[in-house]
Recover the amino acids of this structure.
Protein backbone atom coordinates (compact mmCIF):
# COMPACT_ATOMS: atom_id res chain seq x y z
CA UNK A 1 0.00 0.00 0.00
CA UNK A 2 1.12 3.56 -0.65
CA UNK A 3 3.46 4.83 2.06
CA UNK A 4 1.29 7.93 2.51
CA UNK A 5 -1.34 5.69 4.12
CA UNK A 6 1.10 4.17 6.62
CA UNK A 7 0.44 6.73 9.40
CA UNK A 8 -3.31 6.09 9.14
CA UNK A 9 -2.79 2.32 9.28
CA UNK A 10 -0.54 2.76 12.32
CA UNK A 11 -3.16 4.90 14.07
CA UNK A 12 -5.91 2.33 13.38
CA UNK A 13 -3.69 -0.53 14.55
CA UNK A 14 -3.08 1.21 17.87
CA UNK A 15 -6.77 2.01 18.28
CA UNK A 16 -7.72 -1.61 17.49
CA UNK A 17 -5.04 -3.32 19.53
CA UNK A 18 -6.86 -6.65 19.53
CA UNK A 19 -7.30 -6.77 15.72
CA UNK A 20 -4.67 -8.23 13.41
CA UNK A 21 -2.85 -5.53 11.45
CA UNK A 22 -3.36 -7.35 8.14
CA UNK A 23 -7.15 -7.21 8.59
CA UNK A 24 -7.00 -3.48 9.20
CA UNK A 25 -4.82 -2.97 6.12
CA UNK A 26 -7.12 -5.06 3.90
CA UNK A 27 -10.22 -3.19 5.06
CA UNK A 28 -8.55 0.19 4.62
CA UNK A 29 -7.27 -0.75 1.15
CA UNK A 30 -10.77 -1.84 0.07
CA UNK A 31 -12.40 1.39 1.22
CA UNK A 32 -9.73 3.55 -0.43
CA UNK A 33 -10.15 1.52 -3.61
CA UNK A 34 -13.81 2.57 -3.69
CA UNK A 35 -12.73 6.18 -3.15
CA UNK A 36 -14.04 6.51 0.37
CA UNK A 37 -12.45 9.59 2.02
CA UNK A 38 -9.68 8.71 4.44
CA UNK A 39 -11.42 10.20 7.48
CA UNK A 40 -14.63 8.31 6.70
CA UNK A 41 -12.70 5.09 6.00
CA UNK A 42 -11.08 5.30 9.43
CA UNK A 43 -14.42 5.89 11.16
CA UNK A 44 -15.97 2.96 9.28
CA UNK A 45 -13.15 0.59 10.26
CA UNK A 46 -13.30 1.63 13.91
CA UNK A 47 -17.08 1.09 14.03
CA UNK A 48 -16.83 -2.29 12.32
CA UNK A 49 -14.13 -3.89 14.44
CA UNK A 50 -15.19 -2.38 17.74
CA UNK A 51 -18.77 -3.57 17.32
CA UNK A 52 -17.62 -7.05 16.29
CA UNK A 53 -15.62 -7.49 19.48
CA UNK A 54 -17.78 -6.03 22.22
CA UNK A 55 -17.62 -8.92 24.71
CA UNK A 56 -17.49 -7.54 28.23
CA UNK A 57 -14.80 -8.86 30.58
CA UNK A 58 -15.20 -9.17 34.35
CA UNK A 59 -12.56 -7.50 36.48
CA UNK A 60 -11.52 -10.83 38.03
CA UNK A 61 -10.75 -12.22 34.56
CA UNK A 62 -8.36 -9.44 33.51
CA UNK A 63 -4.86 -10.62 32.64
CA UNK A 64 -1.70 -8.57 32.26
CA UNK A 65 -1.06 -8.04 28.56
CA UNK A 66 -4.71 -8.09 27.46
CA UNK A 67 -5.58 -5.65 24.69
CA UNK A 68 -8.85 -4.36 23.27
CA UNK A 69 -10.58 -4.97 26.60
CA UNK A 70 -14.19 -3.92 27.24
CA UNK A 71 -15.66 -3.85 30.73
CA UNK A 72 -18.58 -2.32 32.61
CA UNK A 73 -17.57 -1.06 36.03
CA UNK A 74 -18.25 1.52 38.69
CA UNK A 75 -15.59 4.03 39.68
CA UNK A 76 -14.85 3.62 43.39
CA UNK A 77 -12.42 6.51 43.52
CA UNK A 78 -10.67 8.77 41.04
CA UNK A 79 -7.96 11.41 41.27
CA UNK A 80 -5.94 13.61 38.96
CA UNK A 81 -2.20 14.21 39.08
CA UNK A 82 0.52 15.65 36.89
CA UNK A 83 3.37 13.49 35.58
CA UNK A 84 6.42 14.07 33.40
CA UNK A 85 5.91 12.31 30.05
CA UNK A 86 8.76 12.57 27.56
CA UNK A 87 9.76 15.93 28.99
CA UNK A 88 6.24 17.34 29.04
CA UNK A 89 3.95 17.82 32.04
CA UNK A 90 0.79 15.77 31.49
CA UNK A 91 -2.35 15.34 33.59
CA UNK A 92 -3.50 11.75 34.11
CA UNK A 93 -6.35 10.21 36.05
CA UNK A 94 -6.12 7.15 38.28
CA UNK A 95 -8.24 5.30 40.78
CA UNK A 96 -10.03 2.02 41.40
CA UNK A 97 -12.71 0.19 39.39
CA UNK A 98 -15.16 -2.47 40.64
CA UNK A 99 -17.86 -4.60 39.06
CA UNK A 100 -18.95 -7.11 41.69
CA UNK A 101 -16.37 -9.73 40.69
CA UNK A 102 -13.49 -7.73 42.12
CA UNK A 103 -11.51 -4.51 42.12
CA UNK A 104 -8.63 -3.24 40.00
CA UNK A 105 -6.62 -0.03 39.67
CA UNK A 106 -6.82 2.05 36.51
CA UNK A 107 -4.92 4.87 34.84
CA UNK A 108 -6.35 7.11 32.14
CA UNK A 109 -4.15 9.06 29.76
CA UNK A 110 -7.16 10.89 28.37
CA UNK A 111 -9.30 13.50 30.09
CA UNK A 112 -12.18 12.08 32.15
CA UNK A 113 -15.07 14.18 33.44
CA UNK A 114 -16.11 11.49 35.92
CA UNK A 115 -16.70 11.16 39.65
CA UNK A 116 -16.56 8.40 42.24
CA UNK A 117 -19.71 6.31 41.96
CA UNK A 118 -20.17 6.73 38.20
CA UNK A 119 -21.02 3.57 36.25
CA UNK A 120 -19.09 3.41 32.97
CA UNK A 121 -18.42 1.23 29.98
CA UNK A 122 -14.76 1.21 28.99
CA UNK A 123 -13.88 -0.07 25.51
CA UNK A 124 -10.58 -0.80 23.79
CA UNK A 125 -8.51 -0.57 26.97
CA UNK A 126 -5.33 -2.48 27.65
CA UNK A 127 -4.12 -4.21 30.81
CA UNK A 128 -0.71 -3.29 32.21
CA UNK A 129 1.40 -4.60 35.09
CA UNK A 130 1.13 -2.48 38.23
CA UNK A 131 2.84 -3.86 41.36
CA UNK A 132 2.42 -7.40 39.99
CA UNK A 133 -1.32 -7.06 39.39
CA UNK A 134 -3.57 -6.12 36.48
CA UNK A 135 -4.19 -2.40 35.92
CA UNK A 136 -6.63 -1.10 33.29
CA UNK A 137 -4.92 1.47 31.03
CA UNK A 138 -7.21 3.90 29.22
CA UNK A 139 -5.55 5.53 26.22
CA UNK A 140 -6.56 8.17 23.71
CA UNK A 141 -7.97 5.34 21.59
CA UNK A 142 -10.21 4.00 24.35
CA UNK A 143 -13.86 4.91 24.78
CA UNK A 144 -15.45 5.69 28.14
CA UNK A 145 -19.20 6.27 28.33
CA UNK A 146 -21.59 6.67 31.25
CA UNK A 147 -24.05 3.85 31.92
CA UNK A 148 -27.44 3.68 33.58
CA UNK A 149 -26.72 4.00 37.29
CA UNK A 150 -28.75 0.87 38.12
CA UNK A 151 -26.76 -1.43 35.82
CA UNK A 152 -24.15 -2.19 38.49
CA UNK A 153 -24.17 -2.75 42.27
CA UNK A 154 -24.27 0.45 44.31
CA UNK A 155 -20.96 2.00 45.33
CA UNK A 156 -21.80 1.38 48.98
CA UNK A 157 -22.01 -2.35 48.24
CA UNK A 158 -18.86 -2.44 46.12
CA UNK A 159 -16.90 -0.51 48.74
CA UNK A 160 -17.49 -3.08 51.48
CA UNK A 161 -14.36 -5.15 52.15
CA UNK A 162 -15.25 -8.80 51.47
CA UNK A 163 -14.81 -11.50 54.11
CA UNK A 164 -12.93 -14.29 52.38
CA UNK A 165 -11.39 -17.68 52.87
CA UNK A 166 -7.69 -17.68 52.07
CA UNK A 167 -8.07 -19.93 49.04
CA UNK A 168 -10.39 -17.37 47.43
CA UNK A 169 -7.98 -14.42 47.72
CA UNK A 170 -6.66 -13.35 44.32
CA UNK A 171 -5.39 -10.49 42.13
CA UNK A 172 -8.82 -8.79 42.03
CA UNK A 173 -8.78 -8.30 45.82
CA UNK A 174 -7.25 -5.06 47.04
CA UNK A 175 -8.50 -5.45 50.63
CA UNK A 176 -9.97 -8.40 52.54
CA UNK A 177 -11.18 -9.40 55.99
CA UNK A 178 -10.80 -12.91 57.38
CA UNK A 179 -10.16 -15.21 60.34
CA UNK A 180 -7.01 -17.34 60.29
CA UNK A 181 -4.35 -18.99 62.41
CA UNK A 182 -0.73 -17.89 62.59
CA UNK A 183 1.30 -21.01 61.79
CA UNK A 184 4.67 -19.36 61.18
CA UNK A 185 6.11 -16.09 62.47
CA UNK A 186 9.49 -14.39 62.59
CA UNK A 187 10.90 -10.87 62.82
CA UNK A 188 13.03 -9.18 60.19
CA UNK A 189 14.86 -5.86 60.07
CA UNK A 190 14.32 -3.72 56.96
CA UNK A 191 15.23 -0.22 55.88
CA UNK A 192 12.39 1.97 54.63
CA UNK A 193 13.16 5.50 53.45
CA UNK A 194 16.40 5.49 55.44
CA UNK A 195 14.73 4.30 58.62
CA UNK A 196 15.39 0.91 60.25
CA UNK A 197 12.18 -0.98 60.95
CA UNK A 198 11.41 -4.37 62.46
CA UNK A 199 8.57 -6.10 60.67
CA UNK A 200 6.81 -9.40 61.29
CA UNK A 201 6.52 -12.00 58.54
CA UNK A 202 4.91 -15.41 58.57
CA UNK A 203 2.14 -17.62 57.28
CA UNK A 204 -1.62 -17.51 57.90
CA UNK A 205 -3.82 -20.58 57.48
CA UNK A 206 -7.47 -21.59 57.57
CA UNK A 207 -9.13 -24.84 56.52
CA UNK A 208 -8.88 -23.90 52.81
CA UNK A 209 -5.24 -22.93 52.43
CA UNK A 210 -2.28 -20.82 53.47
CA UNK A 211 -0.92 -17.40 52.51
CA UNK A 212 2.12 -15.36 53.55
CA UNK A 213 1.56 -12.24 55.62
CA UNK A 214 3.51 -9.16 56.69
CA UNK A 215 2.72 -6.97 59.68
CA UNK A 216 4.22 -3.49 59.78
CA UNK A 217 3.18 -2.99 63.40
CA UNK A 218 3.58 -5.18 66.54
CA UNK A 219 1.15 -8.05 67.10
CA UNK A 220 0.98 -7.80 70.86
CA UNK A 221 0.17 -11.07 72.57
CA UNK A 222 0.04 -13.00 69.29
CA UNK A 223 2.38 -15.78 68.28
CA UNK A 224 2.49 -19.06 66.39
CA UNK A 225 -0.76 -20.88 67.10
CA UNK A 226 -2.81 -17.72 67.71
CA UNK A 227 -6.16 -17.37 65.95
CA UNK A 228 -6.69 -13.82 64.70
CA UNK A 229 -9.47 -11.80 63.08
CA UNK A 230 -8.41 -8.93 60.82
CA UNK A 231 -10.36 -6.36 58.81
CA UNK A 232 -9.50 -4.25 55.77
CA UNK A 233 -6.05 -5.79 55.31
CA UNK A 234 -4.37 -4.88 52.02
CA UNK A 235 -3.51 -7.58 49.49
CA UNK A 236 -0.31 -7.41 47.48
CA UNK A 237 0.84 -9.70 44.69
CA UNK A 238 4.27 -11.21 44.11
CA UNK A 239 4.89 -13.69 41.29
CA UNK A 240 1.21 -14.54 41.14
CA UNK A 241 0.88 -15.21 44.88
CA UNK A 242 -1.18 -12.88 47.12
CA UNK A 243 0.15 -11.82 50.51
CA UNK A 244 -1.76 -10.22 53.39
CA UNK A 245 -0.38 -6.93 54.73
CA UNK A 246 -1.31 -5.60 58.16
CA UNK A 247 -0.42 -2.14 59.45
CA UNK A 248 -1.33 0.21 62.28
CA UNK A 249 -4.67 1.02 60.61
CA UNK A 250 -5.67 -2.65 60.26
CA UNK A 251 -7.91 -3.87 63.10
CA UNK A 252 -6.43 -7.17 64.35
CA UNK A 253 -7.77 -9.06 67.36
CA UNK A 254 -7.25 -12.45 68.95
CA UNK A 255 -10.05 -14.96 68.58
CA UNK A 256 -10.94 -16.53 71.90
CA UNK A 257 -11.00 -20.29 72.39
CA UNK A 258 -14.68 -20.08 73.33
CA UNK A 259 -15.73 -18.40 70.05
CA UNK A 260 -17.53 -20.42 67.39
CA UNK A 261 -15.45 -20.70 64.23
CA UNK A 262 -16.48 -21.74 60.76
CA UNK A 263 -13.69 -24.34 60.75
CA UNK A 264 -11.81 -26.68 63.06
CA UNK A 265 -8.57 -24.94 64.20
CA UNK A 266 -6.78 -28.30 63.93
CA UNK A 267 -7.51 -28.30 60.19
CA UNK A 268 -4.85 -25.64 59.62
CA UNK A 269 -2.12 -28.19 60.37
CA UNK A 270 -3.30 -30.59 57.71
CA UNK A 271 -0.86 -30.71 54.76
CA UNK A 272 -2.26 -29.80 51.34
CA UNK A 273 -3.64 -32.59 49.18
CA UNK A 274 -1.63 -33.13 45.97
CA UNK A 275 -3.15 -31.43 42.93
CA UNK A 276 -2.69 -32.27 39.24
CA UNK A 277 0.34 -30.56 37.73
CA UNK A 278 -1.98 -29.11 35.08
CA UNK A 279 -3.52 -26.95 37.84
CA UNK A 280 -0.07 -25.57 38.66
CA UNK A 281 0.64 -24.78 35.01
CA UNK A 282 -2.59 -22.78 34.66
CA UNK A 283 -1.86 -20.51 37.64
CA UNK A 284 0.46 -17.51 37.74
CA UNK A 285 1.69 -18.70 41.12
CA UNK A 286 0.62 -20.94 44.02
CA UNK A 287 1.59 -20.90 47.69
CA UNK A 288 2.11 -24.12 49.65
CA UNK A 289 0.97 -26.58 47.00
CA UNK A 290 1.79 -30.29 46.63
CA UNK A 291 2.16 -32.45 43.52
CA UNK A 292 3.26 -36.01 42.81
CA UNK A 293 4.78 -37.51 39.68
CA UNK A 294 7.64 -39.32 38.01
CA UNK A 295 11.06 -37.79 37.50
CA UNK A 296 11.37 -37.82 33.72
CA UNK A 297 14.53 -35.73 33.47
CA UNK A 298 17.39 -34.36 35.59
CA UNK A 299 18.36 -31.04 34.05
CA UNK A 300 21.82 -29.57 33.40
CA UNK A 301 22.91 -27.36 36.28
CA UNK A 302 22.22 -30.13 38.77
CA UNK A 303 24.99 -31.52 41.00
CA UNK A 304 27.79 -29.76 42.81
CA UNK A 305 27.88 -25.99 42.35
CA UNK A 306 29.78 -23.03 43.78
CA UNK A 307 28.01 -19.95 45.16
CA UNK A 308 29.09 -16.40 45.85
CA UNK A 309 29.37 -15.87 49.64
CA UNK A 310 27.88 -12.36 49.27
CA UNK A 311 24.87 -12.70 46.93
CA UNK A 312 24.51 -16.52 46.83
CA UNK A 313 24.54 -16.59 43.01
CA UNK A 314 26.01 -19.61 41.24
CA UNK A 315 29.53 -18.71 40.09
CA UNK A 316 32.10 -20.22 37.71
CA UNK A 317 35.81 -20.47 38.54
CA UNK A 318 35.24 -18.40 41.70
CA UNK A 319 34.20 -15.32 39.73
CA UNK A 320 30.86 -13.64 40.52
CA UNK A 321 29.37 -11.36 37.88
CA UNK A 322 28.43 -8.86 40.63
CA UNK A 323 31.30 -9.19 43.11
CA UNK A 324 34.24 -10.33 40.97
CA UNK A 325 36.78 -12.82 42.35
CA UNK A 326 35.50 -14.44 45.54
CA UNK A 327 36.14 -17.54 47.65
CA UNK A 328 33.18 -19.62 46.50
CA UNK A 329 31.10 -21.81 48.79
CA UNK A 330 30.40 -25.42 47.78
CA UNK A 331 26.74 -26.33 47.44
CA UNK A 332 24.48 -28.92 45.86
CA UNK A 333 21.19 -28.64 43.98
CA UNK A 334 18.94 -30.68 41.71
CA UNK A 335 16.80 -29.33 38.88
CA UNK A 336 14.37 -31.99 37.69
CA UNK A 337 11.26 -32.36 35.55
CA UNK A 338 8.31 -33.97 37.35
CA UNK A 339 5.44 -35.39 35.25
CA UNK A 340 2.11 -36.82 36.43
CA UNK A 341 0.41 -37.38 33.08
CA UNK A 342 -1.48 -34.06 33.17
CA UNK A 343 1.63 -31.96 32.68
CA UNK A 344 5.25 -31.48 33.70
CA UNK A 345 6.94 -28.86 35.85
CA UNK A 346 10.50 -27.81 36.65
CA UNK A 347 11.25 -28.63 40.30
CA UNK A 348 14.12 -27.03 42.21
CA UNK A 349 15.71 -28.80 45.21
CA UNK A 350 18.17 -27.12 47.57
CA UNK A 351 21.12 -28.88 49.17
CA UNK A 352 19.17 -30.40 52.07
CA UNK A 353 16.44 -31.84 49.84
CA UNK A 354 18.93 -32.86 47.14
CA UNK A 355 20.86 -34.94 49.66
CA UNK A 356 17.62 -36.64 50.75
CA UNK A 357 16.44 -37.44 47.22
CA UNK A 358 19.86 -38.32 45.78
CA UNK A 359 20.88 -40.39 48.80
CA UNK A 360 24.38 -38.90 49.02
CA UNK A 361 25.59 -35.89 50.99
CA UNK A 362 27.58 -33.04 49.50
CA UNK A 363 30.81 -34.45 50.94
CA UNK A 364 30.04 -38.03 49.88
CA UNK A 365 29.48 -36.82 46.31
CA UNK A 366 33.09 -35.66 46.02
CA UNK A 367 34.15 -39.33 45.99
CA UNK A 368 32.58 -39.63 42.52
CA UNK A 369 34.71 -36.92 40.98
CA UNK A 370 37.67 -39.19 40.33
CA UNK A 371 41.05 -38.00 39.21
CA UNK A 372 39.61 -35.65 36.59
CA UNK A 373 37.60 -33.78 39.25
CA UNK A 374 34.83 -33.48 36.66
CA UNK A 375 31.58 -32.16 38.09
CA UNK A 376 29.83 -33.87 35.18
CA UNK A 377 30.38 -37.24 36.90
CA UNK A 378 27.96 -36.31 39.68
CA UNK A 379 25.40 -34.97 37.21
CA UNK A 380 25.52 -38.23 35.25
CA UNK A 381 25.17 -40.27 38.45
CA UNK A 382 22.16 -38.19 39.51
CA UNK A 383 20.46 -38.92 36.18
CA UNK A 384 21.13 -42.64 36.60
CA UNK A 385 19.84 -42.75 40.19
CA UNK A 386 16.81 -40.47 39.92
CA UNK A 387 15.28 -40.80 36.45
CA UNK A 388 11.98 -42.68 36.66
CA UNK A 389 11.51 -42.33 40.43
CA UNK A 390 8.07 -41.46 41.80
CA UNK A 391 8.27 -38.38 44.02
CA UNK A 392 6.03 -36.04 45.99
CA UNK A 393 7.01 -32.39 46.47
CA UNK A 394 5.54 -29.48 48.41
CA UNK A 395 6.39 -25.82 48.01
CA UNK A 396 5.63 -22.63 46.09
CA UNK A 397 5.34 -22.01 42.36
CA UNK A 398 5.87 -18.96 40.19
CA UNK A 399 5.71 -18.23 36.49
CA UNK A 400 8.89 -16.90 34.93
CA UNK A 401 9.89 -16.14 31.36
CA UNK A 402 10.56 -19.80 30.56
CA UNK A 403 7.55 -21.36 32.31
CA UNK A 404 6.49 -22.39 35.79
CA UNK A 405 9.10 -23.18 38.45
CA UNK A 406 8.39 -25.21 41.60
CA UNK A 407 10.59 -24.21 44.57
CA UNK A 408 10.43 -27.16 46.96
CA UNK A 409 10.25 -27.05 50.75
CA UNK A 410 9.73 -30.76 51.45
CA UNK A 411 9.83 -34.08 49.58
CA UNK A 412 8.53 -37.60 50.17
CA UNK A 413 7.93 -40.93 48.47
CA UNK A 414 4.15 -41.24 47.97
CA UNK A 415 2.53 -44.16 49.75
CA UNK A 416 0.45 -45.15 46.72
CA UNK A 417 2.29 -48.17 45.33
CA UNK A 418 2.72 -49.38 41.81
CA UNK A 419 -0.28 -51.73 42.02
CA UNK A 420 -2.51 -48.67 42.40
CA UNK A 421 -0.83 -46.53 39.78
CA UNK A 422 -0.45 -49.06 36.97
CA UNK A 423 -4.24 -49.45 36.38
CA UNK A 424 -4.58 -45.64 36.24
CA UNK A 425 -1.75 -45.42 33.74
CA UNK A 426 -3.22 -48.19 31.57
CA UNK A 427 -6.59 -46.41 31.65
CA UNK A 428 -4.95 -43.20 30.33
CA UNK A 429 -3.16 -45.20 27.64
CA UNK A 430 -6.31 -47.06 26.56
CA UNK A 431 -6.67 -46.65 22.81
CA UNK A 432 -3.19 -45.23 22.30
CA UNK A 433 -1.37 -47.05 19.52
Amino acid sequence: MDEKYAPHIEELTKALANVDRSKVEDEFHLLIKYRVPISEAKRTILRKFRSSDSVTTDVKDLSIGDKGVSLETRILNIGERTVDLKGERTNIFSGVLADGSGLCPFTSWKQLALNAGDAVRISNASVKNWHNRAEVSISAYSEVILLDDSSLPDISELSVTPVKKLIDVGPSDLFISSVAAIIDLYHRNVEVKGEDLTIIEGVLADETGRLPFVSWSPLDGMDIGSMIRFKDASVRMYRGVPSIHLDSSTPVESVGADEDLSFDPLAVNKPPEPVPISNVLQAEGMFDVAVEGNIVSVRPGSGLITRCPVCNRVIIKNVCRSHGAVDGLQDMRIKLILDDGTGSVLVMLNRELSEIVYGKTLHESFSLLGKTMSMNAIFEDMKRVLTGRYLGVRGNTSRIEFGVTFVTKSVWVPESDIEERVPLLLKRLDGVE
Remarks:
- Residues 38-51 form the longest helix (14 residues).
- Residues 59-157 form a domain with the OB fold (Dihydrolipoamide Acetyltransferase, E2P) fold (CATH 2.40.50.140).
- The chain is about 20% helix and 40% strand.
